[in-house]
C-alpha cells in the first residue's frame, strides 16, 4: 500500500470521510446510549469473579492509559510553535516524549495483556464476555499495539519521525473543519493503521463498556458524605 | 432539631428457629435472577460461626464501616475519598465470590431425560458461573445448626481473646442461636458515603437505603464499605444491589416479605422519629460502648408535644406521627429498652435491632439448685449462661457486658413474673422492681413479645401518594422478571440487559 501514489479520492475517504463518520457515530452513539440504556452504563467489573490478575493488571492498564492519553493530547493538540515559544527544542521534546511514552506504553500493554489473559483463561470471566467485549478488546488491543509498534519502529529503532509536522496538523484540521488529508498521506504505514484503528475504537466506544470513562467520579470529592433523596425526586 | 422518620425493624432472637423461611421468600421475591444467585438480601446465620460472606465481621480485613480520624470525626475505615478513587481499578476490600460461595444449579433435566439403566439418575451440581460440574464446598449457611463448628467455629471474629478457648473447651456445653441479617438501613450508612457516583441514597420519608440503578457505575466501593456486607455486586449487570426493605410493600403499608412470612413471628416493624441534625455527633462519640446510648438518644419521643410539633413543621404527616406512637419498634428500643443494635462499633447507627436470646436461663437456675423466683438466683444465672455474655456483648453492645446483662435480666424477670401469674402464684414484685418494670408494663411487653399479634408487630403507615411522582420509588428498582432475553440454560447469567422498554 503506497499512499504517496494513492488517488486523492482514497486519501479523502481515509483521512476525511472515515474520521468524520467515526466521530459522528461516537457522539450520536453516546447520546443514544445515555438516553436509552443508562441501566447498562457501567464499567461491568469482574473483580468479584477474579481478583488476582485484576489487582495488578487493571491499575497498570488504567494508569498507563492516563499517561498515554495525556501524551497524545500534548502531541496532537499543542502546535510545534507553542512548544518552541516555550523554549523546548525539537530534540528535547522528542527525547522526553519517547522516554515517558515508552514507560506508559509498556505499562498499558502489560496491563491490557493481563486483563485479556484473565478474560480468556478464567472461565468465570470468559462467561461474562459479551458481543460488545468481543469487538472492543481486539480493537483496543490492535490500537495499542499499533501505536506502540509505530513508536518503537520509527522513534526508538528508526531515526525519529516528526509526527507533529504531519499527523498533528491533520488531526487539528479535523476539529477546525479544515482537514488536510495530504498531511496524513505521507505518514508511515504503522501510524496510518494506528490512526484508523483508533477511529474505529471511537466509533464502537459508545456501544461498549468504555462509556464508563465519561463517568469518572470526580464530583465525589466535593459532595456531602450522606446522600438523602425524597420520594418526590423519584 | 430536624425530625426525620424511618421504618425500622426489631427481631426477637429467642424465637428464631433458623428455618430460613425469611431468606427463601426474600430470594424468591428479589434475587432469583442470574447475576445475584449468590446474593442473599436476607440470610440467617448460626452463631457462633464465621457468617456470610466468610468472616465479614473482620473489619481489619475488609475495612468496612467508620472509624474516628485524628480529629475525632467519623471517617470511613477504607480511607479518604481520594484513596477510594485511586482504588477504583482494583478495590482491595472487595470479597471474592468464593468468600460468599460459588453459586450452583443442578442437572435437573438428567432426572427425567436419562436413558433407562441400572442406576438411579442423579442431578449433579454445576457452577452457575461457568456451567461446569463443581463440588459444593461452601454456602451462605454452611454451618447451619453448628455444622462444622469444630473446624470453622474459631474463625468467628466475635470469639476474640480467650473466648474461643472457652467455647471450644466447653464444647459439650455448646451453645448456638440464629441471627437473621438484612440491610441495616443505617442512619449513617457507610455504603452511601463510599459511593463515588452518588447512586446510593437514603430516602428521607422512610429511611430506606436504595441504589439508583441508572446512576450506579459499578465502582463497587459500597460493597467493601458496608461492614455488614449487605450490598452485593450483580455480576451480570455490573451494578450494586441490596435489600430494598421491600419498599413497594412498605409504601403500601404492608410488612417486608421476610417479616410477613416469618414463621416464628419474631420480626417487628414500625416508625421511629429521630433527630437528623445529631446523627453526625452520635456517630462520633469517642467510646464505642457509648454508641448504643448515643443512638438511643437520637430517637425522639412522639408523645412529646414539642417533638410532634417539630415533626409537623418538618413535613411529617399526622398519621406517621401517630404510627410512631404506636410503633412496636419504638417500644422495644426506647421504652422497654430490650432491643440492641448489631455491632454498634461500626458507627453506622444501624436500624435493625435485636432482642438478645435468653433461652436456657431458667433451666440454668434450676440446674444450679436455685429458685427461679429469687431475683438473686435468677440474675446470678444470667451471668453464667451457656451463651456467654461476652459473646453477646461483642455482637450487640461493642463489648459492654453490663448492657447485655441488663436486657437479659429484664427478659428473665418478665418471664418469671408471667409464669407466676399464669400458675396463679402469689405476685412477687421483687423481680420486676429490680429491673424497673411495673406489672402493667410487664404485661404490655409480654403481649408484644410473646403473644405478638400481627397488628401489634407491624405498624406500617402507607406512603403518601400526594408526595409521589409517577415514577415513584422505581428509582432503585426494575422488575426482576423483566430480564427479557428468553430462557437461559442452567440458569446461566444473562448478559447485560439492554433496556428495550425504557421510557
Automatic annotation (TrEMBL), chain A:
Protein family according to the UniProt entry: In the central section; belongs to the NarJ/NarW family.
Localisation: Cell membrane
Any one of the GO BP annotations: nitrate assimilation
Function: Does not seem to have nitrate reductase activity.
Protein's name in the database: Nitrate reductase-like protein NarX
UniProt keyword list: Cell membrane, Electron transport, Heme, Iron, Membrane, Metal-binding, Nitrate assimilation, Oxidoreductase, Transmembrane, Transmembrane helix, Transport
Residues that hold heme b according to the record: 62, 72, 194, 212
Cofactor(s) in the UniProt record: heme b; Mo-bis(molybdopterin guanine dinucleotide)
Topological relation to the membrane, as annotated: Multi-pass membrane protein
Automatic annotation (TrEMBL), chain B:
GO MF term set: 4 iron, 4 sulfur cluster binding; electron transfer activity; metal ion binding; nitrate reductase activity
Pfam families in UniProt: Fer4_11, Nitr_red_bet_C
GO BP: anaerobic respiration; nitrate metabolic process
InterPro entries: 4Fe4S_Fe-S-bd (IPR017896), Nitr_red_bet_C (IPR029263), Nitr_red_bet_C_sf (IPR038262), NO3_Rdtase_bsu (IPR006547)
Superkingdom per UniProt: Bacteria
Needed co-factor(s): [3Fe-4S] cluster; [4Fe-4S] cluster
Membrane-spanning segments: none
Region: Disordered, residue numbers: 469-503
Keywords: 4Fe-4S, Electron transport, Iron, Iron-sulfur, Metal-binding, Oxidoreductase, Repeat, Transport
A GO CC term attached to the entry: cell envelope
The EC number(s) this enzyme carries: 1.7.99.4
Class in the EC hierarchy, top level: oxidoreductase
Compartments where located: Cell envelope
Record-annotated 4Fe-4S ferredoxin-type domain positions: 7-36, 173-205, 207-236
The protein's name in its UniProt record: Nitrate reductase subunit beta
Organism, as annotated: Streptomyces morookaense (Streptoverticillium morookaense)
High-level lineage: Bacteria, Bacillati, Actinomycetota, Actinomycetes, Kitasatosporales
Gene it is expressed from: narH
